[in-house]
Amino acid sequence: MILTKHFLNKAISTLSKSAAERTHYYRSLNEIKHILLFCEAKYWKNIFQCIESLKTMGKHVHVCVYTQKTDDTPIWDYAYVLVEAEKDINLWGFPDNRIKKQINGMSIDMLLDLTSGEIPVMRYLMLQHPAPFKVGAKRAGDEDFYDLSIVMKDGEHDIPFLFGQIINYLKTIRSKKEVV
Fold first, then answer.
1. Which end of the chain is less congested by CB atoms within 10 angstroms, N or C?
2. How high is the pLDDT of residue 80?
3. What is the 3-state secondary structure (H, E, C) of 79-104?
4. In a 10 Å sphere around its CB, with 0-12 CB exposed, 13-18 middle and 19+ buried, how is residue 42 labelled?
């Protein structure tokens, strides 16, 4: 049970401001080998299709899933971190240090946020992660904290559309290393 989200929201606000001011880096799809994907268990059917698509592209995918007692908890392989609402979040809404350490210890090229934006603890975990390239959906009122963001309509959370757009844009990014 979360007593208050006030301190978590304050931390998120601070992290959002510093994320918006940081130097943004871009990666082409060819440069990305290891991905950390943030998602929610209630959208697992759509998420699983995205993961399978990334794996067919030769990407190594780590998954961080937020789940509640009412959700069907997905089963995944070794590169899986489960954030359970009733178990891994303290009274102030912050994630357990074990979760933060496990997630931040992953060496990745891109953090892909496919969460709905409704779960503050996932936003906090995403913002404090040291990933060099962060990608996700920008919603009305959000700071510009992603390196690459896809603008979504208010209240809309269409994972297949979002994922398709992200992959499309990643394919068009050219790095300095690539010769055209």
1. C
2. 85
3. CEEEEECCCCECCCCCECHHHHHHHH
4. middle
Q: Which of 57, 52, 54, 76 is nearest to 65 (CA)?
A: 76
Please tell me the distance from the alpha carbon of residue 41 to that of residue 70, in angstroms, as a whole number.
10
Rounded CA separation 150/167 (Å): 11
The dihedral built from the CA positions of residue 77, 78, 80 and 82, taken in this order, carries a sign that is positive
Contact 145, 14 (CB under 8 A): no
Q: Which helix (H) or strand (E) holds 117?
A: none
Contact 123, 117 (CB under 8 A): yes
Say how far apart CA 29 and CA 47 lie, in whole Å: 19
Q: How confident is the prediction along the chain (180 residues), in pLDDT tens digits per residue? A: 466 778 999 999 999 888 878 888 889 999 999 999 999 999 999 999 999 999 999 999 999 999 998 888 777 666 789 999 989 999 888 999 999 999 999 999 999 999 998 899 999 999 999 999 999 998 877 778 899 999 988 778 899 999 999 999 999 987 555 444
What gap in Å lies between CA 141 and CA 144, rounded to an integer?
A: 9
CA–CA distances in Å: residue 48 to residues 7, 31, 87, 106, 163: 33, 22, 24, 20, 12
